[in-house]
Design brief:
This protein is of the alpha+beta class. It folds into 2 domains: 3-31; 35-120, Lipocalin (Beta Barrel), CATH 2.40.128. It has one helix at residues 3-27; strands at 41-47, 51-57, 62-67, 70-73, 77-79, 83-88, 91-97, 102-109, 112-120. A 9-stranded antiparallel sheet has the order 4-3-2-1-9-8-7-6-5, with no helix packed on it. The longest helix is centred in the N-terminal third of the chain and has 25 residues, at 3-27. The radius of gyration is 24 Å and the shape is globular.
């Protein structure tokens, strides 16, 4: 093989390698866009296993939460693929996804801290 033939062979081989890598990357879905990563829905559980609560999420934001029979709107929240955080009146809640329809939540308030296991309804 002469040098021109070797160069063409090398160029063709490299183009196949890079084309394959680009194709594999385009087929890979990031976790934030994978099926089941949406938090949308109502998540229900009980603080400390005894005080019922629910948190409603829609369109990548916490819409409201329910506790003690009262529903309270939420004005500010942050929703990522793995975590939801919001605060209201000095209380803050962090939810961490544990499965497609399950999460744990931790509450920090002036009255104390609490934990809940939540299930999407």
């Amino acid at each position: 093989m002469n040098i021109v033939s070797r160069s063409l062979f090398l160029a063709a081989s490299l183009s196949l390698v890079f084309a394959g890598a680009a194709d594999a990357k385009s087929r890979h879905k990031s976790p934030s866009h994978s099926v089941g990563s949406s938090w949308d829905g109502t998540w229900s559980g009980a603080w400390g296993g005894r005080d019922p609560t629910s948190i409603t999420i829609s369109g990548n934001r916490v819409v409201n939460y329910q506790y003690g029979g009262a529903t309270t709107p939420v004005s500010s929240s942050r929703v990522t693929a793995k975590r939801v955080t919001y605060s209201d009146n000095g209380n803050s809640v962090v939810m961490v996804r544990t499965g497609a329809n399950t999460a744990t939540a931790k509450l920090h308030s002036s009255q104390g801290d609490g934990e809940a296991t939540l299930t999407r309804q």
